[in-house]
Design goal:
It is built from 4 helices and no strands. It is an all-alpha fold.
């Protein structure tokens, strides 16, 4: 067992690494990523404000805000995942 409680046999079978899981479930940006994440979050907030200001309250308005939020979260995850893949190829 390693420090994360994962057996060697399990580690030999998985393609996703424990390091990747830590990154995927860690909301904070890694080193050098804060500016990128903040830029995406800021753009998402501007889009959400435009939606609120230019549409009537409705299910469609709620859905559009939810999709902007999903896009921001997915984009931020893409930044973190790319960082993990880059660091894995440098080993």
């Amino acid at each position: 067992m390693n420090s994360d409680g994962v057996s060697r046999e399990t580690l030999a079978r998985v393609v996703i690494t424990v390091k990747q899981l830590h990154v995927w479930f860690k909301p904070q940006p890694l080193n050098g990523q804060r500016e990128k994440v903040e830029a995406i979050q800021s753009a998402g907030m501007r889009m959400a404000v435009e939606i609120i200001q230019n549409t009537e309250p409705s299910a469609d308005q709620s859905a559009s805000i939810r999709k902007v939020r999903e896009a921001v979260l997915t984009a931020c995850d893409a930044i973190r995942v790319h960082e993990v893949k880059s660091s894995n190829t440098n080993r």
